[in-house]
């Protein structure tokens, strides 16, 4: 495999001032001092490659007990009785948790709180937790589970969204759970329990529906999106020390402060009685948002007299805890004869599984992102989070944009075939321009979308492609608004008397290089070496608040808070130095823990600090904060901070005898705005692209009668090294229009969005088969070879 990386620099757009974006410049440090944009090793590289890194799975507390859970074998059943007496009597068992020990505990979930710590009256999917045991070791805990007797009354179950929406199907949550909605404006709205087995529904509409009458053609198509497992290497794990008055957890979470808030709700404790520690995460991809192993570990610790309890799920249990959303998307589009897009109406049905989890938030974003990267006069979208008797679905990389990009980009290819227009040309004709509003009231697009299309197309030779030998090419674009619009972030930077720097913020490190990027920002502002900046451990008692590490918003949202903290610190130091040395702080520069004046004087700080404070030492400290302003005109109550955009081009070869697809070339690109760390940006785009490849061709959680058939690593098909493209190109653009430090934008999800539709377009280009369901397995491709995939399509023109 040949892997190459390229860098593209785009000058600031001439009309940038009129678009509402601020284009930041780097501090006036000499080029050899500047660390932002350089290809530096990761700050955590040494400890990770030497095995010294401490992950949440490595946490050990004195006297620690171990937890295991009993899970339901039924998709839907009433719990008639539970007898745990034999388990409680087993030597080495300290506590057994069943519904009898849950009095006073509340349910949890985002917007809709319907998931209990353990099942109370009803189990709602195969894998639902029925009981839990704490014991001196895992073997004893497992033995105790075998002694718990549960009697069930089997209830009817539903396993797909169409069946669940049928009014005659069983109601999975008869009692209305607690819930609430965020504010919506300007065409956006939402409701809870709007329909049978619907926990949350989001609607967005803009423009006049009268434009449907102006359309020359109206097309409606249905697309299916597969359910994926996150497959993070580190499992869900929590160590808890808890009493009825206080909780302390060491846990694998992306959002420690959100978790603290949720645990306070579940256990009816004030937040200042709950302390959350977070070490390094061994992957997450969205799964480690919200409570996972935490409630069970905490309650077992309470029942065990406050002794620490470790609940570490197996990889197989991860399959039964949370997944990505499967989806059915019905998309209706009205277009002019020349290919001009006019109107799009969409119904998105997300399979949210048995509990709401993060489904309302994902549904909101999926519905809002249905316009894609294109210009429509009228948009009308409804997205429903539909409850089924399957594993709960939650946040995953792409967060609703993967589902909508698959359907939206696929339909554009179908429209192109129906109209006899090249799909690349059809996209270019309708792409939004730089600075053009995504939808009325929201921020303008902050990348040149057409330029990104050109880059990836040229990278694989799209315009001179040879379609012989069952080979074809495809080019697609995916777009998602950032999740940073309603995210507040805080940071603190401290510096010692001799210039050593502490960075204190709650951006979790889960493989993306966020700690390195934040440290580089601080080093640039203070004009010091990145090696002098230490990222302190996350502890909610001492770390400043952050909404969470998600939505690729760390570099932009937290990055601005970190930059503001570092700039406030620099200002504080220079003002102090101005008093000490009788110099002008406004014209002086902090450089390697010395102060330099415009006339060339150099004032070392260490000696003067020690002298001033009586040789006791001292720390300067400053805080920073960032949140985009609320906006009454923005549909989601705040304008988008930045748009994460991914472009992809693929060349594939199809074996017509088997339907097997081989990816020969794959080019992926994202716009970093301004690169903070080159290798980090490259890693984000390439990692996202491979996850997109997995969605396109391999990964699918397969259900039969409510049972997950491939809920273990050996049965769940992920890409192997041999599945990687023969030529894999990543292009990091720096178009310079980002809202983050120095013009940066977030990366990490955009590269995943266009991969599956680009490969699907390439399959159609090669053999004329249009696929509408993921993954595009050999069986599905082979079936489409004989049917064309979509009834009524004219032959694909290669003119």
UniProtKB/TrEMBL annotation:
Domain spans labelled Aldehyde oxidase/xanthine dehydrogenase a/b hammerhead: 50-156
Domain of life per record: Bacteria
Matching Pfam families: Ald_Xan_dh_C, MoCoBD_1, MoCoBD_2
PANTHER family membership: XANTHINE DEHYDROGENASE, XANTHINE DEHYDROGENASE SUBUNIT D-RELATED
Protein name (Swiss-Prot/TrEMBL): Xanthine dehydrogenase family protein molybdopterin-binding subunit
